[in-house]
Amino acid sequence: MKRIALTLILLLTPLAAWAETRIVVFGDSIAAGFGLPPDQGLVPTLERWLSVRGYDVTLIQAGLSGDTTFGGRVRIKWSVPPDTDAVIIELGANDMLVGFDPDGIKSNLHTIIDSAQGARQRPVLLLGIYALPVRSAPYRQKFDAIWQSIASQQDVLLVPDMIAPFRRLSQPERERRKILQSDRLHPAQAGVELMVEEIGPKVIELIAQTKAQTKAQAKE
């Protein structure tokens, strides 16, 4: 009986390991969960959202508060462990707030995606963010166009504006007090939950891509 039980464990273990998907969430203070308790940031909230829907996923938090696409371009090289299955990239907001050149931002993101994919050609999900009104209209137009351009050129999944739910508020000023922290920039827990609802379906697509790639590589 013990031998049968041990055999079952040995048989099932590889299946369980295969079922789990390891995804690095690489970004700035949003990915890092700035200003929030450890269990309320974007990464743990998204992981719970996926778990409730039956997805066996481990999300690895690789966020750095204040990071820009230039910093990410350097940091990505040592932020993605070899056993990573896919990468979510969330960078660009700080570049926009400082007013960095959109062409430079675009170039940095291309390099980040190339590094994230690596030799294994890992699936990538790019989380975009549209510019805030603090920037001029011409700048906003050029910045907002970055995301779709990159996604098309590099054939990666895209959420064009991860804070789109914030822009759809029926009573913007009143409701922003509930979804933003006191700095009026970083999301509170309620804001994180809105973001997860926005990006969650695309993360499910990312998982599906990862599973399909794993199956294809297993047949080679």
UniProtKB/TrEMBL annotation:
Annotated SGNH hydrolase-type esterase domain residues: 25-193
Pfam families referenced in this protein's UniProt entry, alphabetically: Lipase_GDSL_2 (PF13472)
UniProt signal peptide: 1-19
Keywords on record: Signal
InterPro entries for the chain: Ester_Hydrolysis_Enzymes, SGNH_hydro, SGNH_hydro_sf
Protein's name according to its UniProt entry: Arylesterase
Organism name: Paracoccus pacificus
